[in-house]
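Morning run. Coffee first, then this:
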Amino acid sequence: MNMDNKAVLVGVDGTDASYKAVWWAANYAKHAGLTLQIVCAYSLPSYAAVSFDATYTALGDDAVAHTDAQEILSRAKAIADEQGVDASTLIVTGDPSSVFVELSRNYNLIVIGNRGKGGLAERLLGTTSSSLPAYAYCPIVVVPFTDDSDQILHLSNVITKVVVGSDESKWGLKALEISAEFANSWNAELTVLSAVPVYGASGGMFSMAPSKEDTDRIIESYLDDLNVRVEPLRRQYPNLMIHTEVVPGSAVDTLTQASSENDVVVVGSRGRGGFTGLILGSTSQGLIQHATSPVYVVPRKYVEVAERDMGTLPTSPADVPSMALEDIEGVQQVEVPTGSQQQAEEIDTAIDPFRRHDEAQDGESQTDDSPQTDESHPQGDQK
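And here it is:
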């Protein structure tokens, strides 16, 4: 990866979903050699209600709110510390949607957890007009907590498979470049997918179901174009294993299904169809609400602003001019103590019981010197 002096920022609101985002962000920051900052926005009633007494928001007790935010940050720091990452902390007052957009100038990556309705995730992902993935100046990773059946998802600390949705827009091309760099940094396999709405989907090529011959012909044509787009990356990363695939159907369905077989899904966030259009659709129906692995979004503003300022596509988030924290209204740097190891272990159990199960099994096998076997569990075998 491109090692810049910018950091990774992760938002936390006291929910298990946000602590899971902290775990993922710390793991990524450690791997990439970047520093980590954790931010808590405490002035939202729905935000505070997730784990602390929210009555202070109605009473306007800012001091109590500030204290509770510090406690959330302390616990989040314990999660990072457990992975050997020393994180700094920020508090945001007011509506975080606009503040996070300004903050995004300063980071390589912003990570947020997604737990559905309520809390920080809904504020940052909830509407097209204020969606952070649409307007941020750096890439965004949305980390899922549960699947559509409310089953807690297991995340691995090693990324081995990455998938990217590819189209010919400049946002889609940038997502392709980033996915290759990302996969190469983890020594992971990369699958490049292109979806073709042949029939039945919005913008489908045929009003009636086409013959198998017509479908095969279209897919072959798309695959030829896809391989042309991918060829420069094969030369740039000769050791990176790249697979290309064209799938008939919708982009949302294609990548949502692929998320169950990959550790990270990469997608652009601008366009009127295909992969770059799906992020700006209804988030209740889109990829970020249904994916079972983290979704890495390349925002439209990240590409547009850097292109406008420098006349070319940005090579990395470091190309986007930073903004001093003191110039961003509502942002305060705070020093909080790191939470206890017991707190970290309790949170670990809540955010990923499968990992604790695996560690217990490993410990038992080492104690009795028995051969190690692969124990499968509902989500762990997917990652």
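Residues 352-382 form one domain. Good start to the day.
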